[in-house]
Predict the 3D structure of the following.
Amino acid sequence: MIVASVGNVLVWAVWVGAAFACLGSAVAVVSFTNPFYSALALIGNLGSLAVLYLLQSSEFVAAAQVMVYAGAVMVMFLFVIAYVGPRTESPWTGGPSWQAIGAVLAAGALLVEIVVVIGLKAGGELAHSHHVGGTFGTPSYIGRLFLTDHLLAFEITSIVLLVAAIGGVILGAHSRTTADEVSPL
Amino acid sequence: MTGPSTAWYLSVAGFLFGVGALGVLIRRNPLIVLLSLEIMLNGANLALIAFARHLHNGDGQIFALAVMAVAASEVVVGLGLIVALNRKHVPLDVDRLNSLRG
């Protein structure tokens, strides 16, 4: 009994830490003026989200999150930010102010709506969840699902990634050829 | 080991989605718009993962992995566009990008 309650307190402590790190770094991404710092804050956001995924017993998705996002996508982001050059921009200055007011109102309405819907449902069905087995969320479980029930989604995902790679190459090469065509003139 | 209920995870997911939407709407640097878009996608992913655990059904995790792949593709195309714009010396400001003509 004591061991179970200590485990419960530990899970709550880890959850509170990860959730507040997640929310704080998300606010930091939106409010930093330097995009380089925003990208670094997003890496913290992704890491704390991986902790939340681990608490929800989805180990493979947490590992994929860290490898794909923090390992590949964010490195690409940092490269592009360094390539474009330092360019700071404050989130609240410039531009028409009605636009910022409307954005804050829209985001606030969205947030209130989500919180009200969750609050209406929180006491009932969401309070107690099913007990999951030890194999839930392991790589073998995910792999079996991918190669049996969701084979079409798996193949379509690979095609989407291939098309995105081709699109990235074309976008990069197109401007280079036009620059070459323009320069002799 | 019970921990917080699914509603707590969904609250975090909703807050992440709201913060990401705010960033997409108020920031004018396209790089930060892309970063805020990632936050929105991750909020949706967290809701998918929480419901997969709640309903004891692995389909939500498969969906989250597919969302991750689509997000990676979107970042590739978005960053390619930003690099192409920067090569043409177009100002990186989404309020001033109002023409598709190269």
About this structure: Helices of chain A lie at 2-31, 35-55, 59-84, 97-122, 139-147, 151-182. Chain A touches chain B through 93 residues (CB under 8 Å). The radius of gyration of chain A is 22 Å. Residues 151-182 of chain A form the longest helix (32 residues).
